[in-house]
TrEMBL record:
Any GO CC annotation of this UniProt entry: lysosomal membrane
Transmembrane segments: 52-76, 96-116, 128-151, 163-190, 202-222, 248-269
Coiled-coil regions listed in the entry: none
Known partners and oligomeric status: Homodimer.
Source organism (scientific name): Seriola lalandi dorsalis
Main location as per UniProt: membrane
Protein's recorded name: Lysosomal membrane ascorbate-dependent ferrireductase CYB561A3
Length: 294
């Protein structure tokens, strides 16, 4: 016996029964793909920027190592090695310590915050590491100055008479002031936020300026030393104008120092490589012992 009433129409597909849902699904799919296409170039651009940074950072480390090796070879092989006896071998500590401390360690410490691996971590350990590297650079620089002042005094040579010495002492003095003000302004818990905001741009600008002064001091010092020792006199050395092997090494050291400084300044000047919370719109100055995981 058949039941009365119209029979229910069959639905060949869900899209026929629910046409609006089909349209919504298509719309959602198009929005998702459009969103993916929109974010994909941003992701690729970010990865490209990070890759270029690490290439520059490795180049920075390589150039820094080359500077240290070059200045050590120069003073050990051509200048007779090292000692602390008031004689010429004591002076050899001066270029080694100044190049290592005032240029290489200083430059590596300056770009520490730019390393992307540090961005998502607590900033306090990196602040302390930055301060420690800068302290090591400052101590090396001061010992290097002690070596040359002691050598000059032991041999009745005047101090601070050349342009090289003026630039070098100015760079070291500004570096000492920069370190003390940096520790007081950014690491002490009693430092107010307003002071940190005021010091931040000055600290960054002064850091780059000190690096430029350090490079100028090292370049002028290398040139001065080569003029002093390569006079072509009876001691068997060829004059600087003949470009003997020692002059080639000294000039190469100067080129390496300039190249290292340019790479460091390139890293520091690229806004895409700044730590995200160090940009002006995202500054968060948290005192020491109050840092939070970021």
């Amino acid at each position: 016996m058949q039941q009365g009433g119209p029979s229910s129409p069959s639905c060949p597909s869900s899209s026929d029964c629910f046409p609006l849902s089909h349209l919504n699904t298509a719309k959602c799919g198009s929005e998702t793909s459009a969103e993916q296409e929109k974010h994909e170039p941003t992701y690729l651009s970010r990865m490209r920027s990070i890759t270029i940074f690490y290439m520059c950072y490795l180049l920075c480390l390589g150039l820094g190592l080359a500077c240290v090796v070059c200045v050590c070879v120069w003073n050990s092989q051509w200048r007779g090695g090292f000692a602390w006896d008031g004689k010429a071998r004591q002076f050899n500590w001066h270029p080694v310590l100044m190049v290592t401390g005032l240029v290489v360690v200083y430059g590596i410490g300056a770009v520490l915050y730019r390393i992307p691996l540090t961005w998502g971590q607590n900033k306090l350990p990196w602040k302390l590491l930055h301060a420690a590297l800068m302290l090591i650079a400052l101590v090396l620089s001061i010992v290097g100055l002690c070596a040359v002042f002691d050598f000059h005094n032991a041999n009745n040579i005047p101090n601070l008479y050349s342009l090289h010495s003026w630039i070098g002492i100015a760079a070291t003095a500004l570096f000492a002031i920069q370190w003390v003000v940096g520790v007081a302004g950014f690491l002490l818990p009693c430092s107010p936020i307003s002071l940190r905001k005021l010091l931040k741009p000055v600290h960054v600008w002064m850091g780059g300026s000190i690096l430029w002064l350090s490079i100028a001091a090292c370049i002028s010092g290398i040139n001065e030393k080569l003029f002093f020792v390569l006079k072509g006199t009876a001691n068997g050395t060829q004059p600087y104008s003949k470009l003997p092997p020692e002059a080639l090494l000294g000039n190469s050291l100067g080129v390496l120092i300039v190249a290292f400084g340019l790479v460091v300044l390139k890293i520091l000047s690229n806004h895409n490589w700044q730590r995200p919370d160090s940009r002006p719109e995202d500054l968060a100055y948290t005192p020491l012992l109050q840092e939070e995981n970021e």
